[in-house]
Amino acid sequence: MGVALRDILADFKRPATPEDLRGVAAIDAFNAFYQFLSIIRQPDGTPLMDDEGRITSHLSGIFFRTANFLEQGICPVYVFDGRPPEMKSSTIRERRDVRDESKEKWDQAKKEGDLASAFRYAMSSSVVDAYIISSARTLIQFMGLPVVDAPSEGEAQAAYMVLKGDADYVVSQDYDTLLFGTPVLVRNLTISGKRRIHGRQVMVQPERIVLSDVLSSLAISREQLIEIAILTGTDFHPGVRGIGAKTGLKKIRSGEFESIIREKLPDFDPEPVRNFFMNPPVTDTYSLQTRRIDRDGIKTFLCEEHGFSKDRVEPVLDKISKKEKQRTLESWF
Prior knowledge:
CATH superfamily of the largest domain: 5'-nuclease
CATH topology of the largest domain: Rossmann fold
Structural class: alpha/beta
Oligomer: single chain
Number of helices: 16
Strand order of the largest sheet: 1-9-6-5-2-3-4
Strand content: 5-15%
CATH architecture of the largest domain: 3-Layer(aba) Sandwich
Number of strands: 9
Shape: globular
């Protein structure tokens, strides 16, 4: 879900130029996987699968998008979620219920021959399970790229890596990374410039948000931005009914946060949520060392094990190989 801050962030979205994007990108891995599983599907919503019935939509997205990144001078570092905090359990249950309901509606729409509805419901039924995670990790490592395991939220770890200077920006569709303190967030970083929204494909462009610009222009602190998010709702609490981002901004500027919490949410303590965003669990135990691409490993994994066409995979491997001489970490800075 993320946080609903779009209305106060719209003025700070800037087109991301190729020069802006060159460097090390800390990618919220699960966020990316959900995108692939949602949009890389057949017309009736069925995901791509191999002969054994294993889903391969995410592998297609990872392989072709990552190759595109490397051609553009972007070194992707995929950051995987760890254990979610206990206060996120309600959101996790709600998402599971939505997926289950969407699966039922998808099956019904397919039976009725309503392909548009089937695709829409299928998008909401995606699950990042143990197989998705392990197979994604295998492919990324065959491509010679780093994988980072976050102790908790991947977005928090990615933001921390940018704050440390180990990465240049975070890639995610959600705004949560700004709450976690990333100096730069990049959204819409896709392979083709197209995304399926509400059942139709639209052109999208990469956009860049700089946290310092947001805070200085809105005349608020990062902690106050977190308070706005708490009022509007986060993955850790639904917030105050009827308060959106613009109203939340006004309330925070007028110093009403504590009084609103006392009046509207008397049984809710916002401090754990605020502290989690300000001081999330992160780790310094990771390596960003890149390695040589394992061409044979990729061809075996994608073509022989998962049914990918060699005619599609090999030209991409040839392009990646041309960038091989740049594949030391220092070359990305």
